[in-house]
Amino acid sequence: MDISTLSLAELRRLQTKVETEIRRRSDTAKKDLLKRMQKLAAEHGMSLTDVIGGQEATEKAAPAPKKAAAKPAAKKAAKPASVIKFRHPENAAIGWTGHGRKPQWVIDWLAQGKALDDLRAASAEA
């Protein structure tokens, strides 16, 4: 198909058809994959929920409803900025909030038998 000969209106109709077909094939592929995954889990005596784990299985199996895009300003207001509580001993530009997984430099520091409090940031001590 030579699309260079199509008018703008014809191109837009074609674009709509292509987008619709992509969406249809994607949905079909997801459903087929879900069925295959459920069958494979059943062959091993489990449910897909057992394999993936709890609520996540149903959330991932069913496509999430489309939501309106959130405005960036609203996201910032909803989530407060994290405060750096610990600083890298050699590079003060690197910090850690104390939440989540420990960075490797903190793990290394502790492995040397040193105290975590020695890394505490000056602003976090107050």
Automatic annotation (TrEMBL):
The keyword Cytoplasm applies. It comes from the Bacteria. Residues 76-121 form the DNA-binding protein H-NS-like C-terminal domain. SUPFAM superfamilies: H-NS histone-like proteins. Keywords: Cytoplasm, DNA-binding. The keyword Nucleus does not apply. Residues 60-72 have a biased composition (Low complexity). Residues 54-82 are annotated as: Disordered. InterPro entries: H-NS_C_dom (IPR027444), H-NS_C_dom_sf (IPR037150). Signal peptide: none annotated. It is found in: Cytoplasm, Nucleoid. Belongs to the histone-like protein H-NS family. This is Histone-like nucleoid-structuring protein H-NS. It comes from Zoogloea oryzae. The gene is spbB_1.
